[in-house]
Amino acid sequence: MLQFDIPRIPIGKAIEAIIDFLVENCSAATNIFSDIMEAFIDILVDGMMFLPPWLFILCIGALAFGITRKRSVGILAILGLALIVNMGLWKATISTLALVVIATLVSILIAIPMGILAALNRTAYRLVMPILDFMQTMPAFVYLIPAIPFFGLGKVSAIFSTVIFSVPPAIRLTCLGIRQVPEELIEAADAFGSSPQQKLFKLQLPLATPTIMAGVNQTVMLALSMVVVAAMIGAKGLGGEVWKAIQRLQPGKGFEAGLGIVIIAMLLDRILQQFGTKNKKPEGGNS
Length: 287
Description:
By secondary structure, the protein is mainly alpha-helical.
């Protein structure tokens, strides 16, 4: 039986060399970014912790009702957050909320321009989509590896890995929403002499908003799941409570922390769904 001595392709060594090069040459920039991000996280957490829990819960309940116009969502917010306080997980929940909010905002700032570019430029579309396929199929734990050399252990590394993990759905659905705008409407806008900017901001983006919000919703859910995984590199929060429960074999505490994550996820999901439906106009309604 013939055997072929095929040399091994040094993919792992090449990745390590690239990371080492970036760490050595970009350390000043990453240190500045890390310091700014840590300060912003601390300000956000301190701001949310400034209010007493009962007042913060009432404000969130009123906000949820005001956005969704559903009493059930407001009651869910109040009862769910009150249960979190009762379980002694309020500080961890605030920390998790801060990480998810920051990671989601950064993801949206990256995703929407990238999705618009991919939707309007065929070359960009062909380049971006295979990269998104790669990012969405890569195991979540892998994204923790490059974060540590750049930012060390802590919340900044958690945000970095969370953004990389959660940004693909927002890019993909932003692109999909714009590409699904009916061609007849595009032709009508061209016939009236609309510029590309006018078509984008007055036609394509408004019609694509429900699809874009679906992508944002998925990004938030992925950010929540990644924050739990990122507890292994010092993210703390509810994910940290789950990780400690695993290490100490405390299933009850782990379930309580998981329940807190479920409550936050359900609340954010209901609110974000409403943002998407607000932009849908009923058929036959006035434009």
